[in-house]
């Protein structure tokens, strides 16, 4: 496993170039960065780059996605990693609070978990930080006045939108479906809930794999866009009745609910790709009066058998399928290298005080987007010429 962490590290060409620069410039010298991010080989490359820039890092993982090998790798290199892989929200809460107890100067957040806890007891000298996700932006936007420090939202960079969310999430969710179920896609009716940048990539990748894709979105503009992109756009109940595969990727909770059990046909696969494991109401499905039994079907798959004899397969307990289940690889290295280069450059700008204190929960500054895009074109695309 260590060799995969090293494979990822040497494939992160942008982070490697930044690390060489940081070894000299030390933008985080004397600063502590607190993070609660998926701990897997790609984030190890991110964390090691920040450490090369002089930061003390205090890190914990996210619910159900922490990989022990990565934790061991980081601890072996002097990174303070709190906790262990867990899917217990209370244990995870304790780990996040331990990161906050270190009173970091900067936070690299993923879902708004750390910034929300920082607000419970703010401390002097806190400089701000970055938020990785759409879900985090939604959670932190109403808290702007209270936060009152620069917070740059990586997800809102156009680079993140097209390189990671559209291209990479789409590919890795398809890869995860194939890996976890070992089933085909051709001719299967695949229903994608959410046609944001992630859902667009998921829908396109399943169509490219010969799936018959239906899009469900609450936003009429997104439904129109999906329609013009050539997808079937129907009412959610009708879509669920026909589905062979259901994928939620909305960033909102309660998308597929207990009453939907009656609509689902035999042998359907339910999978979530949204950040939090709340899009499919798993506890309600597992405890449903019409469910006769629940059994582990294969690694990363549970089968719920209904009293009328249908089998409903649930992937990775409703957790983000591309970072859970057997041998989870997550998004492509190149896409994460781009996103993490944005992360590192944004944290550097906040550490150096070049971001306005009024930039609270705002997108990545255009100059950083342009610098990262140019580096990729030069270092990665240029290498192919
Ligand atoms: N799996 C991954 O690797 C990965 C990577 C990046 C982001 N994400 C997560 O994926 C989720 C979606 O991200 P995004 O950037 O596409 O978000 P987005 O906000 O761009 O799109 C979400 C879409 O879902 C729609 N929606 C909201 N409620 C709905 C409902 N009840 N039914 C149907 N559609 C509904 C919205 O109208 C919107 O079009 C977030 O949770 C994000 O954190 C996952």
Question: Can you walk me through this structure?
Answer:
The mean pLDDT is 95. Helix content is 43%, strand content 17%. The chain has an 8-stranded mixed sheet, sandwiched between helices. Strands 3-2-1-4-5-6-15 form a 7-stranded parallel sheet, sandwiched between helices. The two termini are 32 Å apart. The chain is globular and about 65 Å long. The protein has helices spanning 2-11, 13-25, 41-52, 68-76, 89-101, 113-118, 134-140, 144-147, 158-181, 197-208, 220-228, 236-242, 282-286, 333-351, 366-381; strands at 32-36, 56-60, 80-81, 106-109, 128-131, 151-153, 189-193, 212-216, 232-233, 245-248, 268-272, 291-298, 301-306, 311-315, 360-363. The chain has 15 helices and 15 strands. With 385 residues, it is an alpha/beta fold. Helix 2 packs parallel to helix 3. It binds nicotinamide-adenine-dinucleotide (NAD). Nicotinamide-adenine-dinucleotide (NAD) binds next to helix 7, helix 9 and helix 10.
């Amino acid at each position: 496993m260590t060799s995969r962490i090293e494979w990822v590290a040497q494939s992160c060409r942008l982070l490697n170039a930044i690390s060489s620069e940081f070894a000299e410039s030390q933008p985080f010298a004397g600063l502590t960065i607190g993070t609660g991010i998926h701990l897997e080989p790609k984030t190890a490359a991110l964390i090691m780059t920040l450490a090369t820039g002089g930061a003390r890092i205090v890190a914990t993982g996210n619910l159900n996605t922490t990989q022990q090998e990565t934790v061991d790798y980081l601890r072996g290199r002097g990174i303070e990693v709190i906790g262990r892989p867990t899917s217990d929200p209370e244990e995870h809460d304790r780990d996040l609070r331990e990161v906050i107890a270190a009173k970091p100067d900067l936070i690299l957040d993923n879902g708004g978990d750390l910034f929300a806890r920082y607000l419970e007891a703010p401390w002097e000298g806190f400089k701000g930080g970055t938020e990785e996700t759409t879900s985090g932006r939604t959670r932190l936007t109403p808290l702007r006045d209270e936060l009152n420090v620069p917070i740059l939202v990586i997800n809102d960079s156009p680079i993140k939108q097209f390189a990671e969310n559209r291209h990479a999430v789409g590919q890795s969710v398809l890869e995860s479906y194939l890996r976890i179920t070992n089933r085909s896609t051709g001719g299967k009716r695949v229903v994608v809930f959410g046609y944001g940048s992630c859902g667009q990539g998921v829908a396109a990748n399943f169509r490219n794999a010969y799936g018959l894709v239906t899009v469900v979105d609450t936003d009429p503009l997104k439904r129109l866009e999906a329609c013009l992109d050539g997808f079937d756009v129907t009412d959610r109940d009708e879509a669920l009745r026909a589905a062979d595969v259901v994928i939620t990727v909305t960033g909102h909770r309660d998308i597929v609910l207990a009453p939907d059990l009656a609509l689902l046909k035999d042998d359907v696969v339910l999978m979530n790709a949204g950040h939090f494991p709340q899009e499919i109401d798993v506890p309600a499905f597992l405890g449903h009066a019409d469910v006769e039994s629940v059994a582990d079907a294969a690694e990363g798959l549970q089968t719920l058998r209904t009293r009328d004899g249908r089998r409903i397969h649930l992937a990775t307990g409703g957790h983000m399928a591309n970072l859970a289940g057997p041998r989870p690889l997550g998004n492509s290295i190149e896409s994460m290298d781009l996103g993490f280069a944005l992360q590192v450059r944004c944290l550097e700008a906040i550490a150096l005080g070049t971001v306005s204190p009024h930039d609270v929960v705002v997108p990545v500054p255009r100059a950083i987007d342009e610098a990262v895009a140019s580096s990729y074109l030069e270092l990665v695309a240029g290498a192919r010429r």
